[in-house]
TrEMBL record:
Keyword Membrane among UniProt keywords: yes
Positions of transmembrane segments: 44-64, 76-94, 123-140, 146-164
Organism of provenance: Stutzerimonas marianensis
Protein name (database record): Uncharacterized protein
Keyword list, A-Z: Membrane, Transmembrane, Transmembrane helix
Amino acid sequence: MNKLTQFLPWNQPIKIPDHHNWKHANKHALLEWNIKARPYNTTVANGMFWFMMSIALGACYLMFFKNDSSPLIEKLSWSAIFLSVFFLALYGTTHQKTKFAYRLTETGIEVCEWKAPGKGWMIALKWLTVIAAIAVLFVVALDPSAFWVALAGPGGMGLLYLGLANSRQFQELHTSHHTYEYQWSEFKNITLDRPKKIICLEAPWLSPHSNEYVDWPFYIFSDKRNFDKHVTLIREQLKELPLKEESVSVLQF
């Protein structure tokens, strides 16, 4: 069974882009790891996911169960199809992951982040919006008073699709590759978020708005199995820095 699950897309090993080269490849790596993570405020994303799912459940009830004499099995079948497609499209929207490759040396930290283009779920969301909009017409024909409630489902999906399809930042997230490098001496603070398995290091950054240096977060994503090992090694390199443990809200720019 384990051999079969290894071939699933989400179990495939993370491979660094072919065109990427580490700047300090000639130096011994103290630690290296690759990981998929959600580099944004997951609390907001999760809240949006459950809010939209609750709307979908309400829209599903209005479209398939209210004022309809169809057999129960038919209603359940259409509901299952609608909710399954909606779930996949919404989950692909709110739970997007980015790939990270970290390399720690005696000099500092290098990280490469990228996201392979994957727009299949965007196509699913587009067509689901069209299908749901057609279903709304039947709901309104049966019960005009349910117009605004029925419209909330496909209307919300449509706005979500249009917003993402025309978002420059979102498109760049799917196509661009970024490489960052920090020297150990640049960091000033360490914050650990154990529940989320995030190590946040702060380093000076020159703000283009104020032309002054401000403390800017650098997020290191880990996992449950290796979090303590990653913290220990980073702590060894930054023994003199203050360390605190608190919840970290990842900022997306």
